[in-house]
User: Which sequence fits this backbone?
């Protein structure tokens, strides 16, 4: 689903690094974290493709874009195999490149590799969530968790907000601070400084998280009628179409309200208004999703369109931060 990757690539672009020399250090970390994030997203999509089919959510009545398992292009086994390969690749990238801390950051000359426990949690939980998002018999069924499903329980919006929003945005600054600036998170004083610096990145991650979540909101609005029959209790199923239309409006408009608040109350920097240049692009999606009468297949273009909106917003936000520095 390459159209969704527009959203996946946007978060990592919102990185507040304040010198050219720092950028030369952060670029390899950004590539590595971006590769990990893309592998997690592909793993989630592949498992979602498999699990929705075997759980009965993807039938011949599906109104979303074509899926390989539902169309018969791949068997469920083949889709699972692709998911497992992507997860193994993500595990290797995470444990080999993201988790180990640099030896230069420690005063002792020990050859023992020290690992960042917080990054271990992010890697492990991301891998678990990739299969727990939709759930299903494989692989969670083998450990008695076959009924666990983030998406089917209505927690998909929260999951996307946290992992495809906040964590995806904070990942690169966090790696820079721990791997290059040597703010070791396991020590008290460096941890306090680390949290203080990351507070700014966290603040900027909120509008990014809003737009990431708005993608899944359109998806769930489109699929709510077929999701009912499959027992998929998304927010659109639980509370109805009007509720998620309002949710979409709040998420998208809230992202632009953030720019105005940031400019007027916090920084008084005109460059913080740069993301407002994407407002004309957002109007078409707001009209169609929140105020229009589109439904079913007619909403397909607005799933990918919202992902592109997020990418445009993030690039403008990153440009403003970069120019200001």
Assistant:
């Amino acid at each position: 689903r390459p159209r969704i990757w527009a959203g996946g690539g946007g978060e990592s672009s919102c990185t507040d690094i304040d010198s050219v020399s720092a950028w030369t250090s952060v670029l390899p970390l950004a590539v590595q974290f971006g590769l990990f994030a893309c592998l997690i997203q592909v793993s989630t999509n592949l498992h979602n493709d498999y699990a929705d089919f075997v759980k009965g959510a993807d039938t011949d009545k599906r109104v979303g874009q074509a899926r390989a398992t539902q169309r018969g292009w791949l068997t469920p086994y083949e889709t699972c195999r692709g998911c497992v390969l992507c997860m193994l690749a993500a595990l290797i990238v995470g444990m080999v490149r993201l988790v180990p801390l640099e030896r230069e950051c420690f005063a002792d000359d020990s050859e023992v590799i020290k690992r960042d426990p917080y990054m271990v949690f992010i890697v492990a939980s991301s891998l678990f969530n990739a299969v727990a998002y939709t759930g299903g018999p494989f692989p969670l069924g083998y450990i008695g968790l076959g009924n666990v499903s983030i998406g089917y329980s209505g927690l998909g919006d929260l999951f996307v907000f946290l992992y495809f929003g906040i964590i995806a945005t904070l990942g690169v600054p966090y790696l820079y601070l721990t791997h290059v600036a040597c703010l070791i998170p396991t020590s008290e004083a460096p941890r306090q400084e680390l949290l203080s610096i990351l507070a700014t990145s966290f603040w900027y991650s909120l509008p990014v998280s809003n737009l990431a979540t708005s993608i899944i909101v359109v998806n769930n609005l489109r699929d709510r009628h077929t999701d009912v029959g499959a027992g998929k209790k998304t927010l659109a199923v639980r509370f109805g179409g009007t509720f998620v239309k309002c949710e979409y409006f709040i998420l998208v408009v809230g992202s632009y309200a953030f720019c105005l608040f940031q400019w007027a109350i916090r920084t008084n920097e005109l460059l913080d208004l740069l993301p407002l240049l994407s407002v004309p692009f957002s109007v078409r999606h707001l009209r169609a999703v929140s105020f229009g009468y589109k439904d079913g297949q007619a909403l397909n273009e607005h799933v990918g369109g919202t992902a592109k909106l997020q990418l445009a917003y993030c690039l403008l936000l990153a440009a403003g931060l970069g120019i200001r520095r």
Notes: The first helix runs from residue 5 to 13. The mean pLDDT is 88. The two ends are 35 Å apart (CA to CA).
